[in-house]
Amino acid sequence: MTDNSLMQQVPRVKPPLDPQFRPAALAHRAFADAVAASARPIAVRLALEQADGSVFHFPTRLLPAEHPDAASNFLYLERLVKFLLWSRGGFRVYLDDSGELGQRLRRYFLETPTGKFDAGLMGERVYGRPFEIVLTNDIPGARANTTPLGRHLDGCRIGFDLGASDRKAAAVMDGKVVFSDETVWSPVTQSDPQWHFDQIMDSLKKAAQHLPRVDAIGGSSAGVYVNNRVRVASLFRGVPPAAFDQRVRNLFLDLKAAWGNIPFEVVNDGEVTALAGSMALGSNAVLGIALGSSQAAGFVTPEGNITSWLNELAFAPVDYHPAAPADEWSGDRGCGVQYFSQQAVGRLLGPAGIDAPADEPLPEKLRRVQKLMEQGDPRAEMIYETIGVYLGYGVAHYAEFYDLRHVLVLGRVTTGRGGEVMVRRAREVLQTEFPTLAEAITFDMPDEKEKRHGQAIAAASLPAISR
Q1: pLDDT of 1 strictly over 60
Q2: H or E element that contains 443
Q3: Is the pTM of this model over 0.70?
Q4: Count of Cβ atoms closer than 10 Å to residue 378 Cβ
């Protein structure tokens, strides 16, 4: 990502510990203003295709070649495609520009390290197809193969959630939690797929003991899941590739078979978070953002559905500064995980003047900051204020791609008074820079009981029971 003055907009609300932050939301607004003021803007059609045949269209406009800021076209287009790939998903990108810009975009995703990372995951790993950039004027029509999922509360159900540090399971009868259990585990370091199977089965059996029967099982887990198959998931990254393909990819199908092939659904944990928020709020158009070991996200449409979109916003760019922090997995800069997770807390310790051992695990660094926050330490408060500013500009950027009315904010990073500081600063950003969004979007933070039981009920509600 190269420096470009049009795409490097200085925020009016500055994060106290990150003076070089250059929000994507402001860059896109400045770019759109420059395009609107240009004599001959270039209309460009862009579309993403998923393996089920869904095609999502995203028309946009670029600056004419003679414009003094025309060099911004590529950065804008590349960051736009990157965001769309991780928010919507797709193995094939259509662009009706076969000139130098389109060729450059193709080279980026096929030849550069960060582009190849995205292409590799979006292609074979997620959708099981070679990744393509298709330069053509013959773009297929828009179509979406989405169906309602969740909100089924009848019968005896188990809901589970698999996290990086603990796994949860709950027994739910006609929409009421009658038992819940939380077990500490460390799945990331485990290489044996059978270990993962046994651990999850153990939690399901504990919940089943509190039900007269089990009619359906629904679950959430960090990662990308397509038709109950594991495509990409950090929880299983300790499993060797061959064993992953043989045992992990169909892990939840094997669990379903072990339970007599009763209705069984597993989806990304962000989706269940958003669904739980929608059910608790009694409203739709909900974007859930969980700030934990990574950033998880999910979206409930204005119609009340969760979709086939990926919503992996941890990889979606929110900062366009060329020296923005790099994601340790993809190597790309300015991606959400460095702004909305424990990783953000960890990298802000130094700028805040808080000493911590370099090898101290991120959860311990977070607890250190939370303890200082309880003691009224202003250094800890600056960390939360900085993340809150990130959140405000991040939500403004997300609103360009999601038709949202509610933002549900949760996760370990939001625990305690720090979460309140974050949300207050995020609201301030919207009120200062995006007053129209400030009137249209509300921030919501569930309490601890609502988070535990709401997530369990939402997960359990995923499968429909055939009668």
Answers
A1: no
A2: strand 442-444
A3: yes
A4: 12
